[in-house]
Amino acid sequence: MTLFNHSRRRFLTQSGLGFAGLTALPSLAKAMEGMGMHNQHTGDMMMPKITPNKASPNFHPDVELELFCKPAAIQILDGSRTNLLQYTAKLIKGEKNTLTDLPNSYLGSIIRLQKGQKVRIHLHNGLSQPTVTHWHGLHVPQVMDGHPMYFIEPNETLVYEFEVLNRASFNLYHPHQHGATAKQVYFGLAGGIIINDEEEAALELPAGEYEIPLVIQDKQFDSDNQLVYAPMMHSKMTGFTGDKILVNGRPNFHLDVASRAYRLRVLNASTSRIYKLAWNDGMPVTVIGVDGGLLEKPEVKSYVMLAPGERLDVWADFSGRNEGTELTLKSLAFAGVLPKMGMGMHKGGIPVGSEYPICTIRVTKKVSDSPKLPAQLSKFHHYEISDTVNPTNPLPIGISEAPMSMLLNGRPYEFNNPLPSERVKVGSIQLIEIFHAHGAGGMKMDDGMKRGGMGMMGGGMGMMDLSMAHPIHLHGQQFQIVSRSFSGDSTAYDTVRDGFIDSGLKDVVLVMPMERVKIIKPFQDFKGLFMYHCHNLEHEDMGMMREFSVE
After folding, report:
1. Rounded CA gap, 519 and 532, in Å?
2. Of 421, 505, 548, which is closest to residue 138 (Cα–Cα)?
């Protein structure tokens, strides 16, 4: 079976491997019992155990590597080493720079790929629990996407084989084990994927030592430097947050630079924390790319919002600054992303929405020449609403929260049980509307909600005090943001509204309370089940995840 595609007009079906063995489905709850992570919100949902995919003799990779998930002990703070989980990689075939390790970091290697390459990755599970890896942002077949049904047990190996169809962009890889994604990511399993292509290369953007990944996370440590992760119901509802900000796996991160332009590849790899990024001296944030790659033209903002799973490509020009100059990348104060019930309940940590430093930049060398910011960065196809198959009837993604429940379209996660609105034709271009489907968003049982079969939204109606911001991630191809509309008191919304970059290709969109967001998403090339979920990973694990069945 062919697992890569030579033409964007060629639609491949990957359902054979995807649904093998559905006559004997083990309970996912049993698989979780040993971890103490039984998910109460999946009901009687059953997850298949698929025989792990093996290497195909007919697939000839340009890049081949082994990726190991295993426990590790890493020096993060002064004193005791911290026990965590770690991705480590070994290159079997490919260019020497395919794998780049972040210095002194527990994070997985940066995997650098080229558009058009054929890639084989052997994922080895050296953990004491099941896992599976998702290539967040990559457009790959269902069987290669890291759907939770492809989880592997300890000591098993899963082989991924795919062609890189994406344009140049910064993506990520992390576990997608149902009910355990947040915990596995929090304990260290995350890494970056940088894809390059000819269009980007022609720009001659800062590269090598002048292209710096900045992976931002927050953690809590106990007195012995061990990670603390024990979310109670409140922190499950709002998302677990830490009391230390780490960049590239290091606290109090600082970067020494020359007085010239740099390219900062920024990733929010926190499980739930949202950042409002800005420079402390008022220098504007110049954004040249987002999740799905370069923008067509740079956007200049006083601040930029960055939700879990989102990426930013930032042009940071330190030209003309004297040696010894120090700048701070900060998260500024903002409001409205947490429910009223959650405000003021972050004692001892760093409150979400407060102001705090992310990292420090120090100019240590004066130079006279620097590349110039290109006025034109890229070109990509823009879909119009008229291009969609449903221009007047968008597919609904209704967000609702209630005590003990995190729902999409009124349902928790259910394996292979799509609503009518979650069945789409392969090759179609779909208009989707994401909104808050309870009282806080001013929503009623409109036609779109009825179409989704939502009933009373699973108890979400009227839960005004529970309304919060949700970063919604859709697997598969990137989408375009068409519009945002907001209703109600804008006091909190005004603190974030100017920080959204909606002109590029995206795979995560932050949806604020009382906000509606329309997107256009293509479902091309591959049939199968493709997840969409909240990338507040505690919410995902509570069931705020559904599937599109691409048929």
Report:
1. 13
2. 505
C-alpha separations of 242 from 52, 67, 536 in Å: 35, 28, 14
What is the domain range of residue 57? 15-201
* DSSP-derived secondary structure letter, 537: H
For 464, the 3-state DSSP assignment is helix
Question: 11 is written with which tokens?
Answer: 């639609």
Find out whether 288 and 295 touch, Cβ atoms under 8 Å.
yes
Cα 37 off chain centre by: 22
pLDDT tens digits for range 15-50: 333 333 322 223 223 332 333 333 333 344 578 889
Of 149, 167, 201, at which residue does a domain stop? 201
- In the sheet that 157-163 helps form, which strands lie side by side, from edge to edge? 82-93, 63-74, 118-125, 157-163
Q: Are residues 355 and 398 in the same domain?
A: no
160 shares its domain with 308: no
Contacts of 158 (CB under 8 A, 6+ apart): 52, 53, 122, 123, 125, 132, 133, 150, 152
Q: Specify the DSSP element, H or E, that contains 234.
A: helix 233-238
Is 185 within the bounds of a domain? yes
Of 548, 497, 478, residue with least CA distance to 137 = 478
133 and 269 inside one domain: no
Note whether residue 139 is domain-resident. Answer: yes
End-of-domain residue from the set 181, 201, 221: 201
**Distance in angstroms (rounded) separating the CA atoms of residues 501 and 300:** 10
Give the H or E element holding residue 18: helix 15-18
Low-confidence ranges of the chain (pLDDT < 50): 1-44, 341-347, 439-464
Phi-psi region of 336 (alpha: psi -120 to 50; beta: other; left: phi over 0): left
DSSP 384-405: -GGGSS-TTSPEEEEEEEETTE
In whole angstroms, give the CA distance from residue 363 to residue 277.
20
Measured between alpha carbons, how far is 66 from 119 in angstroms, rounded to an integer?
11
Taking each continuous run of H as one helix and of E as one strand, the counts in the chain are 7, 32
Assess whether 447 and 480 both reside in one domain: yes
Q: Are residues 428 and 283 in the same domain?
A: no
How many domains is the chain built from?
A: 3
- pLDDT at residue number 53: 97
